[in-house]
Amino acid sequence: MAVSWQPLSSRGTGAQPEALCEGVPDHLHARPLQWIERNVTPVGVTVLGLQLRLPLKVGPHWETVRDLQRHCTADDEVFLDVLDGILRFDQVPE
Fold first, then answer.
1. For 13-68, what is each residue's pLDDT tens digit?
2. Crossing angle for the helix pair 61-74 and 30-39, nearest 10 degrees?
3. Pseudo-torsion of CA 48, 49, 54, 57, nearest 10°?
4. How far is CA 77 from CA 34, 42, 68, 73, in A?
5. I need a surface site. Which of 1, 23, 43, 76 has the fewest CB within 10 A?
6. Distance CA 20, CA 63 (A)
7. pTM, full prediction
8. Phi, psi (deg, nearest 5) at residue 66
9. Structure-model confidence comparison of residues 41 and 2, the more confident one
């Protein structure tokens, strides 16, 4: 079954009136980055890279995840899209 996913950044038109801030504030980066590291699978990181057109390094899983995290910290839209994508279709089973 194909999953139809549209990145969070293309579903809305910016911050909603009730939003306290746009994106991910710098002081809140650490926990979501750790969560990404624990929850994205090798297939998931590849799919996210392709879906979001991110130039990710090819190598060991941890290296590709670090590159994905680097893209997240450089761009809040990418950060939110990555979190959204993992929540929608790619979580490590517990």
1. 555 555 566 777 888 899 999 999 999 999 999 999 999 999 998 899 999 999 99
2. 150
3. 140
4. 18, 22, 13, 10
5. 1
6. 33
7. 0.76
8. -60, -40
9. 41
